[in-house]
Amino acid sequence: MNTRSSKSMVTFFNAFAQPGYPGQLPAGTYEVIVEEELLQGLSFEAWRRISTYLIVHGKGNRGGSIAMRPITQKDLELVLRRDRIATETINYSEAALSPPEDLK
Description:
The protein is of the alpha+beta class. The protein contains one helix and four strands. The protein has one helix spanning 73-96; strands at 3-12, 28-38, 47-57, 66-70. The chain has a four-stranded antiparallel sheet, with helices on one face.
Protein backbone atom coordinates (compact mmCIF):
# COMPACT_ATOMS: atom_id res chain seq x y z
CA MET A 1 0.00 0.00 0.00
CA ASN A 2 1.36 3.41 -0.98
CA THR A 3 0.85 6.28 1.43
CA ARG A 4 1.71 9.95 1.45
CA SER A 5 1.70 12.72 4.02
CA SER A 6 1.13 16.41 3.56
CA LYS A 7 1.61 19.26 5.99
CA SER A 8 -0.27 22.54 6.26
CA MET A 9 -0.61 25.27 8.84
CA VAL A 10 -3.78 26.66 10.41
CA THR A 11 -4.03 29.76 12.58
CA PHE A 12 -6.47 30.22 15.42
CA PHE A 13 -7.04 33.78 16.61
CA ASN A 14 -8.80 32.66 19.79
CA ALA A 15 -8.30 29.90 22.33
CA PHE A 16 -10.18 26.79 21.24
CA ALA A 17 -11.18 23.34 22.44
CA GLN A 18 -10.37 20.28 20.36
CA PRO A 19 -13.24 17.79 20.44
CA GLY A 20 -12.33 14.72 22.48
CA TYR A 21 -9.68 16.49 24.60
CA PRO A 22 -10.06 18.35 27.90
CA GLY A 23 -9.21 22.02 28.26
CA GLN A 24 -8.47 24.67 25.72
CA LEU A 25 -5.52 25.24 23.43
CA PRO A 26 -4.11 28.76 23.09
CA ALA A 27 -4.53 30.88 20.00
CA GLY A 28 -1.67 30.46 17.54
CA THR A 29 -0.49 28.65 14.44
CA TYR A 30 -0.70 24.86 14.43
CA GLU A 31 0.63 22.26 12.03
CA VAL A 32 -1.83 19.80 10.49
CA ILE A 33 -0.58 16.52 9.03
CA VAL A 34 -2.81 14.56 6.64
CA GLU A 35 -2.01 10.96 5.70
CA GLU A 36 -3.54 9.42 2.58
CA GLU A 37 -3.40 6.05 0.89
CA LEU A 38 -3.38 5.31 -2.83
CA LEU A 39 -6.53 3.57 -4.03
CA GLN A 40 -5.45 0.47 -5.95
CA GLY A 41 -7.02 -0.93 -9.12
CA LEU A 42 -8.26 2.30 -10.66
CA SER A 43 -7.39 3.54 -14.13
CA PHE A 44 -6.44 6.90 -12.62
CA GLU A 45 -4.58 8.00 -9.51
CA ALA A 46 -6.83 8.61 -6.49
CA TRP A 47 -6.04 9.05 -2.81
CA ARG A 48 -8.16 8.50 0.30
CA ARG A 49 -7.56 10.34 3.56
CA ILE A 50 -6.78 7.86 6.32
CA SER A 51 -5.85 10.20 9.17
CA THR A 52 -5.48 13.83 10.18
CA TYR A 53 -3.39 15.09 13.10
CA LEU A 54 -3.15 18.42 14.88
CA ILE A 55 0.39 19.00 16.19
CA VAL A 56 0.32 20.51 19.69
CA HIS A 57 3.48 21.81 21.35
CA GLY A 58 3.69 21.60 25.14
CA LYS A 59 3.74 24.73 27.28
CA GLY A 60 5.11 25.45 30.74
CA ASN A 61 6.56 22.41 32.48
CA ARG A 62 5.66 20.36 29.38
CA GLY A 63 7.69 22.66 27.13
CA GLY A 64 9.56 20.80 24.44
CA SER A 65 6.96 18.04 24.21
CA ILE A 66 4.97 17.53 21.03
CA ALA A 67 1.67 15.66 20.71
CA MET A 68 0.11 14.42 17.47
CA ARG A 69 -3.58 14.63 18.29
CA PRO A 70 -5.86 12.77 15.89
CA ILE A 71 -8.71 14.95 14.62
CA THR A 72 -11.31 14.36 11.96
CA GLN A 73 -11.51 16.72 9.02
CA LYS A 74 -15.05 17.57 10.11
CA ASP A 75 -13.92 18.51 13.64
CA LEU A 76 -11.02 20.58 12.28
CA GLU A 77 -13.37 22.50 10.00
CA LEU A 78 -15.77 22.98 12.95
CA VAL A 79 -13.17 24.51 15.29
CA LEU A 80 -11.83 26.72 12.47
CA ARG A 81 -15.35 27.94 11.67
CA ARG A 82 -16.02 28.68 15.37
CA ASP A 83 -12.75 30.61 15.55
CA ARG A 84 -13.64 32.64 12.45
CA ILE A 85 -17.10 33.46 13.86
CA ALA A 86 -15.62 34.47 17.24
CA THR A 87 -13.04 36.69 15.53
CA GLU A 88 -15.70 38.38 13.38
CA THR A 89 -17.87 38.95 16.45
CA ILE A 90 -14.97 40.51 18.36
CA ASN A 91 -14.06 42.75 15.40
CA TYR A 92 -17.68 43.93 14.95
CA SER A 93 -18.02 44.58 18.69
CA GLU A 94 -14.84 46.67 18.76
CA ALA A 95 -16.04 48.67 15.75
CA ALA A 96 -19.40 49.31 17.43
CA LEU A 97 -17.68 50.49 20.60
CA SER A 98 -15.35 52.95 18.91
CA PRO A 99 -15.22 56.31 20.70
CA PRO A 100 -17.45 58.92 19.11
CA GLU A 101 -15.87 61.70 17.14
CA ASP A 102 -15.33 64.96 18.97
CA LEU A 103 -18.09 67.41 18.27
CA LYS A 104 -16.96 70.98 17.57
